[in-house]
Amino acid sequence: MFGTLRLAFIGLLAFAASAGAQDNGGQSAQIPSIVTSGEAIVRRAPDVAFVSIAVETRARTPRETQQLNADAMSSVQQRVAKANVPREAVRTTGYSIQQEFDFANGRRTPRGYVARNGVEVRLDSVDRVGELLDAMVDAGATTVTGIRFDLKDRAAAEREALRLAVVDARARADAIAAGAGRTIDRVLRITDTPQPRFKGPMPMAMERTLATAAAVDTPIEAGTIEIHAQVELTAAIR
User: Fold this and answer.
1) Are the beta carbons of 136 and 213 closer than 8 angstroms?
2) pLDDT score of 237 more than 80
């Protein structure tokens, strides 16, 4: 009997401890607080550009079109090197050789082969994009597939945007608290909301073939880079 009473007493103590923990948790969850968000945009002039071009050649055999393509791309790379672009700033983005066909009266007739070699060139002087573009087309590039501008130290701009977004969120929280006749006691939580890496008109995609390209002085405008940041802030009030 005494053993039964002892077990019942221990169970009662466990229940009381559990109930007390739940009451404390409920009280902590009932701290008066407000939740707001903040946004910021940091604008910077781009200081690096990426130009993507390709060389396409056609011939009757794979070997012949490959050789023609290699000669044309070598000419383009020599022109890039002559423009004082370091070798590590040039990378191949794709290479392919495919057979082409003509279709007539429901029949497929082999026409020849096409080779395509694409490269991306990084330029640390954005004002030279037009100059390099014209040089590569003159040297044998048949297609310009894209021009992209960016920041060398994008991380610093992103941190600045986050800082300003937190400042904005805190200012909103202060305004909300003041409107309710309260003040901010402390910040409980700040959550970063990741934003798309490129937003707005920063990336510039274009298609430019040798047949339609201007001979010289292609105008290129770098514009500005916009870094967006957004945070959510939870603050206790008193």
Assistant:
1) no
2) yes
